[in-house]
Write a structure and sequence with these properties.
Layout (H helix, E strand, L loop, with lengths): L2 H18 L5 E3 L22 E3 L3 E2 L7 H6 L6 H8 L1 E2 L3 E5 L2 E5 L5 H20 L5 E7 L5 E6 L5 E5 L6 E4 L2 H7 L1 E2 L7
Antiparallel strand pairs: 1-2, 3-4, 5-6, 5-11, 6-7, 7-8, 8-9, 9-10
Helix pairs in contact: 1-5
Length: 190
C-alpha cells in the first residue's frame, strides 16, 4: 500500500479512537497562526499556549521540500514530503510495541516553514558529524533526545539519539510504521 493510503487510514483511525473514548483532540494554540486545524479562531488577545480543539485537514497545497533539498544539495526521501505534506494536524500520540511516541505534524503553512528550518539544522548536524543523513518525524516520550527518523537513503524508520546514528530499526518504511503504530488517546495536550 502507498504511504498516502496508509496515512489517510491512520488519520481516520486516530480521530475514531478519540471519538470512541469521548476525548476531544486538543493542541496548544499559536495565536500568530490562523491554522486550518483549529476548530475556532484564536485572537491576538488570547493567551499564548491556550489549548484548542483541532481536526486534521488535508493540505490543499502540499508542503514542498524541493527548495530545501536544493539548498542542501541533497534530495529528500519522498516519504518525507508525503508525511509532512499530506495533512495539517497536531502532533499525533501513538504507541509502538507499548512505547509512547509522538509523530510530528504541522498545523499550517507557517508551522511547515518552521519544521523545514529544523530539518535543515538536523541535516547539517548529520553532515558535520559525518553520519548517514536522517530526517526526523517524531520523538519518544521516554527520552527528550530520542528521535524517530527516516534514513534518507533506505527509507527505514528507526530510533536515534540526537547526534548519534540510528541504533534501532522500527520499520522498513514509513508506510509500514503507520500500519504498526496505534493511536494513543491522551486526555490533555500538554
Amino acid at each position: 500500500m502507498s504511504l498516502d493510503t496508509v496515512f489517510d487510514d491512520f488519520i481516520q483511525r486516530y480521530t475514531a479512537a478519540y471519538a470512541a473514548a469521548n476525548v476531544p483532540l486538543l493542541t496548544e494554540a499559536h495565536d500568530d497562526w490562523q491554522a486550518p486545524i483549529y476548530q475556532r479562531q484564536t485572537t491576538a488577545t488570547e493567551a499564548q499556549g491556550e489549548d484548542v480543539v483541532w481536526q486534521p485537514v488535508r493540505q490543499q497545497q502540499p508542503l514542498q521540500f524541493q527548495d530545501l533539498a536544493n539548498a542542501l544539495e541533497q534530495p529528500f526521501h519522498p516519504d518525507i514530503a508525503t508525511f509532512y505534506g499530506r495533512w495539517y494536524a497536531a502532533d499525533l500520540n501513538v504507541s509502538y510495541d507499548n512505547h509512547p511516541l509522538v509523530l510530528l505534524q504541522n498545523h499550517c503553512h507557517e508551522d511547515g516553514e518552521r519544521l523545514q528550518a529544523n530539518l535543515a539544522g538536523h541535516v547539517l548536524m548529520k553532515r558535520r558529524l559525518r553520519q548517514p543523513m536522517t530526517l526526523f518525524i517524531g520523538l519518544a516520550e521516554e527520552s527528550d533526545d530520542l528521535l524517530i527518523t527516516v534514513d534518507n537513503e533506505t527509507g527505514q524508520v528507526g530510533l536515534e539519539f540526537v547526534g548519534q546514528p540510528q541504533h534501532e530499526i522500527l520499520a522498513p518504511s514509513l508506510a509500514e510504521l503507520m500500519t504498526i503504530v496505534q493511536p494513543r488517546v491522551v486526555t490533555n495536550a500538554a
